[in-house]
């Protein structure tokens, strides 16, 4: 018996409508009823996903305080969503910046990442993974976190460079 992937995540949010709009309009998730209706809940599916839902959102209300995870309590740091192409990462960097949700961008050597926060202040990562056949020794040897120079990565790999790990790569 072995776990082979994350099927979905469920988040507690302050304002359900605001959060649904963010994940739908900014990150491109589609709305699904998740197999049934629950008061104060919404279920969303990532583009191209075959899951019933990839994200569940449960509303707590405006009185809910910020998450203390990583500061005052244990808890989840972030979820990482993978994009198909480096151009998708560039497009999301602009979109997240335009709505004030982009909080960071990092080069992890074999992966290139954006960090954002949703309307409830929950952090997420958007990642593009260098395809194995394009990895250089320099990419493999990078350790830790460096600032992401997205323009340089686009010049090196091109907008259409497809991510190296996604499920579509495994199945096709």
How are the SSEs ordered, and which strands pair?
Blueprint: E1 9-13, H1 16-26, E2 30-32, E3 41-45, E4 55-59, E5 79-82, H2 86-98, E6 102-107, E7 111-117, E8 123-129, H3 137-141, E9 146-147, H4 150-157, H5 167-171
Parallel strand pairs: 1-4, 5-8
Antiparallel strand pairs: 2-3, 3-4, 6-7, 6-9, 7-8
Structural overview:
- It is a single chain.
- 24% of the residues lie in helices and 26% in strands.
- It is α+β, with helices and mostly antiparallel strands and 172 residues long.
- It has a five-stranded mixed beta sheet, covered by helices on one side. Strands 1-4-3-2 form a four-stranded mixed beta sheet, with helices on one face.
- The chain is globular, with a radius of gyration of 17 Å.
- It starts with 8 loop residues before the first strand and ends with a helix.
What is the structure about, briefly put?
Helix content is 24%, strand content 26%. The chain has helices at 16-26, 86-98, 137-141, 150-157, 167-171, and strands at residues 9-13, 30-32, 41-45, 55-59, 79-82, 102-107, 111-117, 123-129, 146-147.
The coarse silhouette is globular
Q: Which structural class matches the secondary elements?
A: alpha+beta
Biggest sheet, open or closed, and with what strands and sense?
Answer: 5 strands, mixed
**CA distance, first residue to last residue:** 24 Å
Strand order, sheet with most strands: 5-8-7-6-9
Q: What percent of the residues sit in helical stretches (DSSP H or I)?
A: 10-25%
Tally of alpha and pi helices: 5
Low-confidence stretches: 167-172
Quote the average pLDDT.
90
Order of helices and strands: EHEEEEHEEEHEHH
Secondary structure: number of strands: 9
